[in-house]
Amino acid sequence: MGTDSHTPHVDALGVIAIGVGGLEAENVMLGRASYMRLPDIIGVKLTGLRQAGITATDIVLAITEFLREQGVVSSYLEFYGEGAAQLSLGDRATISNMTPEFGATAAMFYIDNNTLDYLKLTGREAEQIALVENYAKTTGLWADDLQQAEYERVLHFDLSSVGRNIAGPSNPHRRVATSDLASQGIASPVPQLDGIMPDGACIIAAITSCTNTSNPRNVIAAGLLASKANQLGLSRKPWVKTSLAPGSKAVQLYLEDANLLAELEQLGFGIVGFACTTCNGMSGALDPKIQQEVIERDLYATAVLSGNRNFDGRIHPYAKQAFLASPPLVVAYAIAGTIRFDIEKDALGHDSQGKPITLKDIWPSDEEIDAVVKQSVKPEQFRQVYQPMFDLKVDYGSASSPLYEWRPQSTYIRRPPYWEGALAGERSLQGMRPLAVLGDNITTDHLSPSNAIMLDSAAGAYLDKMGLPEEDFNSYATHRGDHLTAQRATFANPKLFNEMVKESGKVKQGSLARVEPEGKVMRMWEAIETYMQRKQPLIIVAGADYGQGSSRDWAAKGVRLAGVEVIVAEGFERIHRTNLVGMGVLPLEFTKGNNRHSYRIDGSETFDVIGTPAPGELLTLVITRTSGERIDLPVVCRLDTAEEVSVYQAGGVLQRFAQDFLENSQ
Asked: Which residue ranges does the record assign to the Aconitase A/isopropylmalate dehydratase small subunit swivel domain (predicted)?
């Protein structure tokens, strides 16, 4: 169990690992059990062999599209079949890593010789490897013993059908074959004027994320492509901010061993850190001249990254859209300089003879990649990086007070308000007004972005008032310990579409809300402040797959502090739903076939909930229109376990703990 939504990365080893919300983890740390409904276990049979030159990224983007269409939310997946057996552990991990993008809870692979090969490659002791093999075979968990496993539902996916892909814009499951970029309206002829950024300019090209940089084949492929590009005299465009942020220091060691790190650095892909960066919105500042040109020309600027998420507004404030791609393809786009480039057909440059250079001329073969992996990825590199982690000696110094000295001027750590204000009172579930009426695929980046704080945002205005210079604003994620900054991130994403706010009959994009009953449109944070002053209980109405993306507890904390008591949607992503429960917000689901459109909800109504919340219970949502018309509709209570009911009734995780502590202290 891990609080990173990509914890299922480990599932590739045949070890069950799931991501949970931070609030659910707190619940466990405070002594309570973590419960979940028995999941659907779905078999995903992989057939066929992948085509030459196709990366694990191409495969996982195609699988993500496929599984989203099939509907596997909250399910446990088990990949098997001849296709799965041929995948290296690194390739399997690339697939398992994107479990939350499928909507699933886990994505397992069988334990087999490829698993043991990975353990050897990463420096595990022979005794441990033998134990893993013996245990798996003795308990019936070895791949050969699971050939007759039966699943209530089996999905079939042919690896040989996968070509080169990117995903985007806006969602990881919006796959586009690179051969179809022109027909899909992404690639188009763009005039290239010296020194001027073109339409669709890639202002960011980043090899990043645990999805891809933990797979040696993907990173080596990027290095080999860079080497070929350098030999042919190609270079990145000057407006492209490039970076390499591996998830492990071992990546640096094997790239250096293969003499490929210098090749990547020559194209601008130097190592900037070993952590989440661009993928989580930590892209850093652009060159001021580039940024100014983007603003003045209102340029359609983009980002291309080897990450796992590309939600609107996530990657960088000035990248209007983002696309996911394999590491070698990211390098190619840095050379191309624009997403409008037809990456399979257009010339990246010309050689010394004037001959056009296209992607196929620099794309490494599978044989080249495998040869470098075999020669340069070594067990001692992993031992060098990871063994010291377990040899730490900590000097805790002299004893100090366990109580933290709160600093009133801090914008990073502030005494939390979870027993005060909206969280201290009773939730009436009566007379609620909508804060927002939203569509499908609302992500935690819409609910509480983590990227850079801009001066013209509500959080930026607050930090400016606190005396911080703009260059020290940092990101929303770094201020999560200060609720006065973090709660101003609530619905602060400029890409939000709140259906309550319309202009000329169309929904207006922006961090906007409409305060009722006045019908006045204002910035979202100003609307929240208005409702907080009125002590107005709130509700959010949404479409399908509400809460996709990161396991960001502030996506639940922010709305609860705003006074939201209920969220009614067509469906919830698992981790965000548990975070809502952990904050005492009641998740309700429309019955099948019904949604906000069925009842013509426009945000002018008030809402009441009638009934006692219980797992799967049908409650009544009462809608009262301004005309006085009343509509009673059944909704499903999505408190899924008795434990969740207990946490919700207490008002949230911390309130539950406080009540238990006081009861046990008497």
From this structure: 461-592
Which residue has 């075979």 as its token pair?
A: 137
Sheet harboring 76-80: ordered strands across?
A: 106-109, 76-80, 41-47, 153-158
Q: State the pLDDT confidence band at 549, using cuts at 50, 70 and 90.
A: confident
Is the CB of residue 108 less than 8 Å from the CB of residue 14? Answer: yes
The residues, any chain, with a CB within 8 Å of residue 331's CB and separated by 6 or more, are 205, 207, 222, 225, 226, 229, 264, 267, 269
If you classify domain 7-161 with CATH, what class do you get?
Answer: alpha beta
Residue intervals of the chain classified under CATH 3.20.19.10 are: 433-447+491-665
What percent of the chain shows pLDDT beyond 70?
A: 99
CATH superfamily of 165-382: Aconitase, domain 3 (3.30.499.10)
Q: Which residues contact 395 (CB under 8 A, 6 or more apart)?
A: none
Kindly report the CATH number that applies to the domain delimited by 433-447+491-665.
3.20.19.10
Q: Dump pLDDT digits (tens) for 173-184.
A: 899 999 999 999
Residues 6 or more apart from 176 whose CB is under 8 A from it?
Answer: 165, 166, 167, 168, 184, 186
Dist. CA 78–CA 67, nearest whole Å: 13
Dihedral sign computed on CA atoms, order 395, 397, 400, 406: negative
Nearest 5 degrees, angle CA 370-CA 374-CA 375?
120
The closest alpha carbon to 474, from 487, 483, 485, belongs to: 485
Q: How far is CA 406 from CA 43, 378, 459, 484, 607, in A?
A: 51, 48, 21, 14, 39
Q: What is the layout of strands, in order, in the sheet containing 175-177?
A: 175-177, 165-167, 321-324, 302-305, 202-207, 241-244
Domain with CATH 3.30.499.10 in the chain: 7-161, 165-382
Q: Tell me the pTM.
A: 0.88
Q: Which residues contact 531 (CB under 8 A, 6 or more apart)?
A: 433, 435, 515, 538, 562, 563
Assigned token pair, 82: 């001849």
Within a 13 Å sphere around the CA of 279, how many CA atoms are in the beta-carbon half? 28
CB burial string 342-375: b at 16+ within 10 A, e below = bbbebebbeeeeeeebbbebbbbeeeebeebbee
- Cross-strand bridge partners of residue 350: 356
* Distance separating alpha carbons of residues 265 and 35, to the nearest angstrom: 47
